[in-house]
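Module 6 notes. Inverse folding takes a fixed backbone as the condition and produces residue identities as the prediction. Think of it as a translation problem where the source language is geometry and the target language is the twenty amino acids. Below is one complete input and output pair. Work through it position by position during the lab.
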């Protein structure tokens, strides 16, 4: 089955929005060649990309992923809200991360499911589908074609913003754990609930401002549902056959993420180095050097060692950082590849959906690493089953 796009012609004198899948920012030379002569747009999708079986499998995968993301993060939020021990700065950061992940499962993935099912059922691409935004369109003051408002103008920034919120929250979690590891006596004074909530609000505001940057600071971008990634992606407006001069603004996305990931890695290295030093000293004490330290107060001992729970939490955040880095790297490679001119249609699908799948990984990591979270889940389900036994607490 080929791409389900309408045929249309575009006046030569106007700037056109024509994203396809074969070159940087989804532009094909064949499509450009056909514009001036008023020829119809060639099919955007091949059988291997957009066949009926392929779309069916993609929809099954998307529905399963959305279910896992929503259920997992609802359980996470419920545990942290109903457990008083979780109402700490670290708990607030975990709630922020869970909300960002759940928004992906509630808004982003269901929209892709709806679009894919619409294509299979009606065989007619919606207005937000790639290449359809020029029909119907009206002239704008910028000399281009403007289509009616489409859901991608919401869904695209939501996905980008939630991605930035996730990495910024992981960065804040790493800072909070590093204070607990390096300055355990000053942790309560430095990391307060008010400061944590303020940093969370700032991270959300900055993340969504960055997600909207291509639309706010440039008039040369729009959002469309991409047939390869099966998501709403940023697309530059083409003037003739030229990309806009500010097309590289999209590189700010991977630059922001890798800057925070680099900072997170550096902080983790410092924290784990300190943990290793404390572990080595504790091992020396257990092997017979207790008299040297006088109970950990001098000599080879460490008077202000972090607690075991702080150390384990730092390792858990390290695993979260590794998981996010592994899921985001394919997106960064895809963006860089597009800028230099590589054609990666199938790879774009795996890149975007690997990143989306990270939204259900955090609850798995908590379940494996955090015994308090496991205990909270157990109490949650026991509380739901308690009424039949007759006692209410």
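Target side of the pair, the amino acids:
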């Amino acid at each position: 089955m080929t791409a389900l796009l309408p045929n249309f012609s575009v006046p030569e004198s106007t700037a056109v929005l024509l994203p396809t899948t074969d070159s940087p920012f989804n532009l094909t030379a064949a499509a450009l060649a056909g514009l001036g002569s008023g020829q119809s747009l060639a099919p955007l999708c091949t059988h291997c990309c957009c066949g009926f079986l392929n779309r069916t499998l993609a929809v099954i995968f998307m529905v399963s992923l959305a279910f896992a993301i929503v259920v997992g993060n609802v359980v996470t939020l419920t545990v942290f809200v109903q457990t008083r021990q979780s109402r700490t700065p670290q708990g607030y950061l975990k709630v922020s991360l869970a909300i960002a992940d759940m928004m992906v499962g509630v808004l982003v993935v269901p929209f892709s499911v709806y679009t894919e099912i619409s294509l299979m059922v009606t065989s007619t691409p919606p207005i937000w589908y790639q290449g359809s935004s020029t029909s119907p369109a009206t002239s704008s003051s910028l000399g281009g074609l403007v289509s009616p408002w489409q859901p991608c103008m919401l869904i695209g920034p939501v996905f980008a913003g939630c991605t930035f919120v996730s990495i910024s929250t992981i960065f804040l979690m790493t800072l909070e754990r590093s204070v607990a590891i390096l300055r355990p006596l000053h942790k309560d004074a430095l990391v307060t609930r008010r400061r944590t909530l303020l940093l969370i609000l700032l991270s959300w505001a900055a993340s969504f401002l960055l997600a909207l940057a291509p639309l706010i600071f440039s008039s040369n971008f729009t959002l469309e549902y991409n047939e390869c990634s099966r998501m709403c992606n940023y697309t530059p407006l083409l003037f003739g056959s030229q990309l806009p001069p500010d097309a590289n603004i999209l590189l700010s996305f991977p630059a922001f993420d890798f800057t925070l990931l680099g900072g997170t890695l550096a902080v983790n290295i410092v924290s784990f180095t300190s943990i290793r030093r404390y572990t080595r000293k504790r091992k020396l004490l257990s092997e017979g050097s207790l008299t040297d330290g006088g109970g950990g107060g001098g000599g080879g001992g460490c008077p202000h060692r972090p607690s075991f729970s702080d150390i384990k939490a730092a390792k858990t955040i390290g695993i979260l950082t590794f998981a996010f880095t592994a899921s985001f790297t394919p997106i960064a490679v895809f963006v860089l590849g597009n800028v230099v001119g590589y054609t990666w249609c199938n790879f774009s699908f795996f890149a975007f959906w690997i990143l989306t799948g990270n939204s259900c990984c955090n609850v798995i990591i908590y379940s494996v690493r955090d015994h308090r979270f496991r205990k909270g889940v157990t109490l949650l389900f026991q509380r739901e089953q308690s009424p039949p036994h007759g006692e209410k607490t």
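Reference fact for the lab report: DSSP finds 13 helices and four strands in the chain.
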